[in-house]
Amino acid sequence: MIRVGIIGKTNTGKTTFFNAATLLSAEVSTYPFTTKQPNTGTAYVRTICVCRELGVKDEPRNSACIDGWRFIPVELVDLPGLIKGSWEGMGLGNRFLSVAAQADALIHVADASGSIDAEGRLTRPGLGNPILDVYDIEEEITMWFAKSIHKSLKTVMKRVESGAQLEEAVYRSLAGLRVKMDHVEKALARSGLEKPPKKWSEKDVMVFAREVRRLSKPTVIIANKMDIANASENYERMREEFRGSFVIPACSEAELALRRAEEKGFIRYVPGEEKFQVLDEAKLTKEQRWALNYVQERVLSRWVNTGVQFAINMCIFKLLNMNTVYPVEDAKRLSDHMGRILPDAFLIPYSADVKELAREIHTELAKTMLYAIDARTGLRLPTDYVLKDRDVVSIVAAARKK
Ligand SMILES: Nc1nc2c(ncn2[C@@H]2O[C@H](COP(=O)(O)OP(=O)(O)O)[C@@H](O)[C@H]2O)c(=O)[nH]1
Ligand SMILES: [Mg+2]
Q: Which residues, 6 or more positions from 35, have their beta carbon under 8 angstroms from its beta carbon?
């Protein structure tokens, strides 16, 4: 499963974001280091389901379909606040950074209202500087990468001396950071490091570390706490400063409130939606009415949505370039062998072909597959057919051939 890590300073709202996105109740509080363990949960990306287009009532198994929206699971990890010096072991830095390094993409939560100081302590809104906060955390991760690269430099040298390609040697030494070969190649080229590692200076290592981090940990930046008065000014500054990144205005607290209210049956709310509907006005307490009103006025009316679902979607569809594909066993009935209609939705990279989908479903299937059938047209697809977004396909394997 795709893994997304949440990073950021203490008190920026990481755990609130995590709880909202996963609707699991983890500890939320304002003391530094309340989250001592990385918290893992399931969040969902949201995409238009093919059920309406195909005119069927689906019965999802690995995902959910709400009002024609398919929600597909991804793993979300809440990392306790990183602080300056985490890479050297400050706080519980080492452990958390090694978890962050295992992610496919990162969500970087910053407090756009400026309610935290440089150390992540709550302060008067407007005093903090979210732009510097973002740079601080990025630097921690780069330093962590640089440290790992430094540590492995001798091994890389040895491998190169005994005939290995530079790319290959570096790639193997960075296995713990979930870096792909393609990232290593690009990062080496971009940092102009064609020379043998023996000649790499400290600065070369830093430049390379920054490039590998950027490539292997694509990141969306969350301008959180947009409900607080002076957040919009900081949000504009952040957008300007981080022009090359997605900066998403968000209010994690509002998303959490909406999902909890939906869970309790007070409102109708589909995660990511621009609106909610109160189901029974009379059942709400004065406080609940006030809270829902606050969410409407301060968040939805101003920023369209809470940004939480949007951020997860951005990560998966824009940064990681995933398509959604619906494998079925019976191409005519669009079902599995139990008769369940459109049971599964898989996230696969843009470039993935039928073989890769088969591998994703089951290693055995990849070995025995013959071809696939496009459910919409009934056409036979070769195993190297590159899948398109929203394809519905049936994979035909040798054992099933009659
Ligand atoms: N106003 C406002 N407060 C928020 C928002 N998100 C989180 N908070 C508050 O910020 C504080 C820190 O939140 P928490 O999720 O524990 O931050 P973490 O340390 O980054 O995990 C808590 O008091 C939250 O209620 C938001 O969107 N708006
Ligand atoms: Mg936390």
A: 14, 15, 26, 27, 78, 79, 80, 81
**From 7, 28, 109, mutation site for ligand 1 pocket: most ligand atoms within 8 A of C-beta:** 28
The number of the ligand 1 atom at minimal distance from the alpha carbon of 32 is: 19
pTM of the model: 0.92
Q: Which ligand is nearest to the CA of 110?
A: 1
DSSP secondary structure letters along 318-383: IIS-EEEEEEESBTTTTB-TT--BS---EEEETT-BHHHHHHHH-HHHHHHEEEEEETTT--EE-T
Length of the chain: 402
pLDDT tens-digit profile, the chain (402 residues): 899 999 999 999 999 999 999 984 333 344 444 455 678 888 999 999 999 999 999 999 989 999 999 999 999 999 876 777 777 766 666 677 778 888 999 999 999 999 999 988 999 999 999 999 999 999 989 998 998 898 888 899 999 989 989 999 999 988 888 899 999 999 999 988 887 788 888 899 999 999 999 999 999 999 999 999 889 999 999 999 999 999 999 999 999 999 999 988 999 999 999 999 999 899 899 999 999 999 999 999 999 999 999 999 999 999 999 999 999 999 999 999 999 999 999 999 999 999 999 999 988 888 999 999 999 999 999 999 999 999 999 999 986 444
> Of ligand 1's atoms, which has the minimum distance to the CA of residue 78?
21
Report CA(275)–ligand 2 centroid distance (Å).
27
Work out the burial of residue 296: count CB atoms within 10 Å of its CB; fewer than 13 is exposed, 13-18 middle, 19 or more buried: middle
- Complete domains list, the chain, with CATH: 1-38+79-128+218-320 (3.40.50.300), 131-212 (1.10.8.470), 322-400 (3.10.20.30)
User: Which 8-state DSSP code applies to residue 267?
Assistant: E
Q: How far is the CA of 284 from the centre of ligand 1 (A)?
A: 24
Q: Whose CA is nearest to atom 28 of ligand 1?
A: 225
Q: Which residues contact 29 (CB under 8 A, 6 or more apart)?
A: none
Distance, CA of 114 to CA of 44 (rounded, Å): 29
Beta strand segments in 219-290, E: 219-224, 246-249, 267-268, 277-278
